[in-house]
Design a protein that fits this description.
2 copies of one chain form a homodimer. Chain A has 226 residues and is mainly alpha-helical. Helices cover 70% and strands 4% of the residues of chain A. In chain A, strands 1-3-2 form a 3-stranded antiparallel sheet. In chain A, strand 2 (67-70) and strand 3 (74-77) form a beta hairpin. In chain A, helix 5 (108-131) packs antiparallel against helix 6 and helix 8 runs antiparallel to helix 9. Chain A is elongated and about 55 Å long. Mean pLDDT of chain A is 87; it is low at 1-10. Chain A binds a DNA duplex (30 and 30 nucleotides) through helix 3.
Chain lengths: 226, 226
Amino acid sequence: MEDTRDGSERAPLAAADRAYEFTRELIVSGRLSGGELISEGEIAERVGVSRTPVREAFLRLQAEELLRLFPKRGAVVVPLAPGEGEDVLEIREAIECLAVRRLLRLDDDDLARVVERLRETLRAQSGPARRLDTPAFARADQAFHLAIVAASGNALAERFYGSLGDRQLRMAAQALHPRPERLEVLVHEHGALVDAIAQRDVARFEEALRAHLDATHRALAAARRP
Amino acid sequence: MEDTRDGSERAPLAAADRAYEFTRELIVSGRLSGGELISEGEIAERVGVSRTPVREAFLRLQAEELLRLFPKRGAVVVPLAPGEGEDVLEIREAIECLAVRRLLRLDDDDLARVVERLRETLRAQSGPARRLDTPAFARADQAFHLAIVAASGNALAERFYGSLGDRQLRMAAQALHPRPERLEVLVHEHGALVDAIAQRDVARFEEALRAHLDATHRALAAARRP
DNA sequence: TGTGTCTCTCTTGTATCTATGATGGTGGGA
DNA sequence: TCCCACCATCATAGATACAAGAGAGACACA
């Protein structure tokens, strides 16, 4: 009843999914950078499947704006647009604040449960932060923010927010690395966000989130223009 | 250099695009309602193409959350979730307000140009509103709101907002119809939104937008529970 | 040397074919 | 009568075959 595209790996991942993961990883990790051209055949060969599932993967990646397909010519990796970091951060801020305003419509019990879940994801960040394990931290960070949005119950927002994650990862792969000393600070800032939610203080949440994202954004900008 | 998926119809639309348009229309227009099952073969036959391009169309529709594919079983039209109207409206509000806050960072000349463009789309609404041409109005309405977001220059937001349009159309097809007398009111409210932008009054814009969407939402809810 | 054209190759778009999983109905047994 | 196993059917997943568009580069000519 459940399909195989949900990330749970009990089944030996369908060919299309393998092709998708493979290509997505190539892009998100930065090994394939913006403007680079790839062909279905090439990926098909490397993954060991026919072109059909690769085509499906490419279509998915195009839907996620990571790839752009040019008819009869090939696929190019969509380059990170100049203002994209700012774009992503603004949308994240808007959606997360929306989510929190919605969260606060929950009654105390439900909110407490949400807060508890968030604190769990917080704890999951400490390890990677202390180990300066940037990739793991990036995943945990993403999971944390997504958890806030998911808790709000707006499925549309959640899905969109999730798709922003890939773009974020792609940028983070370049940007977070140079500043691993910030990881613990980020965990702390996340804690403050949860506190604000727990205390039903929207204004404080919004302010803290803005500061948090501003700092991330500044880190990005700083890393990009050294 | 331009691909054939951009809606310009000089070329005899690719098979995949025809299949996509056909199926999307079926869903958005409500002729195919939530939960209904369709198969690639069925659409392939009706459109007169093979299953391959239909498959591509289905994948695109799945990416847009209009269709859900179940491996080896078929595709079901994603039903309108109970709270979805509210979800969409909240996101629209958040993104549009974000867009306007960003618009107001433009200098006076640029802002004036944006306002002029918006007023043009306003004029395009009057005709359909007077004629009580609901489908045409729905398109114009969508174009208006999208224009605000597009003008902000956040490409990500624009794309996402656009994708909300289909869902909105789908709901509007059911909801706006019963209240054609509201169309002219909506045009008027749109005018107020533009005025707020022109006067750089964010607070007023946000308030007016909320009222505008609330009214739409109430109209929806009223239409759904008669 | 510069330019226009022509072809050759690469890549996608579509069709078709095969394999396999899912489902629902049927019939036998408890 | 009810339940379970089996099988026919159907739909997709993936592979392969084929056609056609787009570009790069060779080549002829001015």
